[in-house]
Design goal:
- It is built from 11 helices and no strands.
- The protein is mostly helical.
Length: about 270
């Protein structure tokens, strides 16, 4: 399994620095912030795609949701640990260069505790999410499950399905394509995949457990240990929060695109 950890430690930093080098040569007009942000999102999209593929493979191969196992679960968890750690670093770099680009001549001269603190204040929930996955989810998966529940770990992998589309949306913004139909369609896909794979997935897992043991969906929670239900709520809560943010952003984009049409109609009436 250590091979998976070493592989992840090589693949994700390697992809990030490769993307940065390629973009610097192909997009010479881009700032350091543009290159860093797009490189970060490309790596995120790669990880999300791989996680989804691993999840679908595991879920489709497990007939018994509790006892069936698949070698890919532990291997991919270890493969993903370096990504989670390195992604915190790339998120910080994106924040740092973006703030420097906005501040111009007033930007800080270099990295400091102040720039790190500003990043943590802005993206504390994402950082906390990554840290929980590394220091809580990973040990539970590898050491405390007693080989049970690979099906549910596979479902957790599938939650990453929305990530490539979120990344594509940010890349389209960097390419100044945020007002296009492509960006609108991608935004709708983000909402659909996020709601399906990060929110509806939880009642789906409860339903699959209930079907396995002949328990109605509304009674499944009472047949599970309290710690299991609390853990699911802890995982679900930030997903609901992020989904509300996505809905608000979608509403703002819709109103922004609709406003020129309204102004045009008013002009025609005048």
């Amino acid at each position: 399994m250590m091979a998976a950890l070493v592989c992840g430690a090589a693949v994700f930093p390697g992809l990030f620095f490769s993307f940065r080098k390629i973009l610097k040569h192909t997009r010479t007009e881009w700032s350091e912030a543009d290159v860093t942000v797009v490189s970060e999102r490309l790596v995120s999209a790669v990880h999300g795609s791989l996680a989804t593929a691993a999840g679908v493979t595991v879920v489709s191969s497990c007939r018994d949701v509790m006892t069936d196992s698949h070698w890919l679960v532990n291997s991919f968890v270890l493969f993903g640990v370096p990504y989670m750690v390195f992604d915190i670093y790339t998120m910080y770099l994106s924040h740092y260069h973006t703030e420097r680009s906005r501040a111009g001549s007033e930007a800080p001269s270099g990295h400091s505790l102040q720039t790190v603190r500003a990043f943590l204040c802005k993206d504390w929930m994402l950082v906390l999410h990554h840290m929980v996955l590394v220091f809580i989810f990973t040990p539970i998966t590898l050491f405390f499950r007693r080989g049970l529940g690979d099906f549910f770990i596979g479902c957790m992998f599938i939650t990453e399905l929305s990530t490539p589309f979120v990344s594509i949306g940010k890349i389209l913004i960097q390419l100044r394509l945020d007002g296009t139909k492509l960006h609108t369609i991608n935004g709708l896909i983000v909402l659909l995949t996020f709601f399906t794979c990060r929110i509806l997935l939880f009642p789906f897992m409860y339903w699959m457990y209930g079907r396995q043991f002949g328990i109605p969906l509304h009674q499944v929670a009472f047949h599970l240990p309290l710690l299991c239900n609390v853990g699911n709520l802890v995982l679900l809560a930030p997903q609901i929060y992020w989904f509300t943010l996505l809905l608000r952003k979608a509403q703002r984009l819709y109103l922004r695109q609709r406003r020129p049409q309204v102004d045009e109609d008013v002009t025609k009436e005048d």
